[in-house]
């Protein structure tokens, strides 16, 4: 090991790019000075690492002998590499400002994003923040977005796709989905916490509209979204089949990397009037003895601001595919929940002045 | 050569030519002339191990041809092993029998996702072909019928599973208790708010309800601004639907909404909640809050400083012996430890768990 250190010590000269926040965002560094020192300067034998909370385990901890000089060498080497990457980013930025072709510009932006990740992703402070302090990540930084996306890819995205496919939301609503944004949903009026995709929700929980968060992982600014909630399991007794009902529609919702909330303070004015609604919220009101109904939340990226023709929405069989196509919408995220008849459905119907629900024979014919 | 000899030699030649063509004849020719086959008297006493074991035919085969109309449960194929696999709207039995689970028209088809399988499915409509295109919505039959007689429907609606019936009283009691608790808390808040802000008597109950809702949101871990916005939205949403039910004019609803919003902004500007005890506290602006925080931290720092200085004074004082110094530090400057500690009691000869705060010093174990 000491041979490696000696070899690199001669090659690598001191660089402190990652300690310089004049051009870089302050969020890329650790705020806690004690934590920062422990991370970069090694751990004093008596104090132990900050990441270990158990006192006994902290006392027991011993760093590998010779680790600190090796760490410092690697740290310097990585910083020099990052410095070269930052120089390349500057070149790309100049090219972006010179070009007028939209396609070329988009490609350059993607390239720049990739390089911004590689310049910071091995920074120990960034890595530590992404790993141990994931609540307050600054999503305007490409490196943090990269780590957040990795985490989402490994769990949230897979879970969502599993639920959408096993419960046939795909292809019963939209043909398929390549998820690009992390969508979360909650029903704050009922005091419920974030919903796991596919969960069964009580009708009293879903009585009032939900709120969402839409997390983009690519660099976005002023991106507009459309959110539709559809139920492909509305019974149609006449045709002995099912209709798709539009339960809620929001258009032109503005979301950026840092402002991800789609909550009431964003959607509504001071008197609770929702300015993004294309149809008022219709809560799930399943009828007794029928199988569960699926409620699919689809999040679309808009190309531009959308004006919706309301005639389409009154159709008893709402065609979400046609809607997406005519308004130039690209599905980038989804969520779902399930509802079944319960004893609160009648109260929900009463609240919304809906007709009394039918009662079905318990056995399928 | 005589004629007989000629004929016999020709016959011999012909025979030998004939015999040479078959294996048996060659073997026979190879036999010595002295071996004479003898038939001994034999009688097979029992049948062979494999004879008499052929069962009657199992009547296997395709029972409903492609395009045949079938009912639910109709057997389409009887087979050994899976010559055919169950496709859409079909299932496979224990003996690989394929039967219909939906009424419709039999289709024998191939699926590009399973190129080596022949599938049997049931199309719900005569004009439909299988497999259904991969990205197209599934064609589903509803199959339930509503109960027409009002009396029967009412009875069916009231019907409960045993588990639900058993849980109901407990659930109702819990709900009633929560309502009572909320009502009590609301009246307390309505009384307390008067101390912070001047409100007309009719607005006090409304303010109490708002504060209760905010408190519940805060207890769910929400930020104060979010809690306030959700509570406002909830009220406006409720009142709009209430007006729709009761047929109240929209102007009246608007007036009520406005009135509520005025009250809300007054209350929000006057009070906030203690983050630990959830008691009402006077509202503080963010800058005031930061200033107060900084002041308190400064006080704590000064406190620790004086303690350190005193410790130095005791050390420096010439009047104390070493023992007295230790006692003084133990009694007045000990840091103490939180929680419970184990102490060996010499009298009872047992280890006792004692509250560290009561002890006042760190015991040596």
What does this structure look like?
The complex is a heterodimer of chains A (365) and B (365). Chain A has 365 residues and is an alpha+beta fold. In chain A, 36% of the residues lie in helices and 19% in strands. Chain A is built from twelve helices and nine strands. Chain A has helices at 2-11, 33-41, 55-60, 67-98, 102-120, 124-132, 142-154, 156-166, 169-172, 264-267, 320-326, 345-351; strands at 181-186, 199-200, 211-216, 223-236, 241-255, 261-262, 277-279, 293-302, 329-339. Chain A has a six-stranded mixed beta sheet. The termini of chain A are far apart. Chain B contains ten helices and twelve strands. Chain B has helices at residues 3-20, 23-30, 150-158, 162-193, 201-219, 224-246, 250-270, 286-316, 322-333, 356-359; strands at residues 61-62, 69-70, 75-78, 85-86, 90-92, 98-100, 104-111, 114-123, 271-273, 280-282, 340-345, 350-355. In chain B, helix 4 (162-193) crosses helix 5 (201-219) and helix 5 packs across helix 7 (250-270). The N and C termini of chain B lie far apart (137 Å). The A-B interface holds A 168, 171-173, 175-176, 188-189, 191, 193, 208-209, 232, 235-237, 239-242, 263-265, 268, 270-273, 288-290, 350-353, 358-362, 364-365 and B 134-147, 153-154, 156-157, 216-217, 220, 222, 225-226, 229-230, 232-237, 240-241, 244-245, 254, 257-258, 261.
Characteristics of this structure?
heterodimer; A: 365 residues; alpha+beta; Phosphatidylethanolamine-binding Protein; 2 domains; 6-stranded mixed sheet; 3-stranded antiparallel sheet; 12 helices; 9 strands; 36% helix; B: 365 residues; OB fold (Dihydrolipoamide Acetyltransferase, E2P); 4-stranded mixed sheet; 10 helices
Biggest interface: chains and residue counts? A-B, 42 and 40 residues
What does the average pLDDT of chain A come to?
Answer: 90
> Helix/strand/pairing class of chain B, anyone?
alpha+beta
Q: Briefly note the structural class of the backbone of chain A.
A: alpha+beta
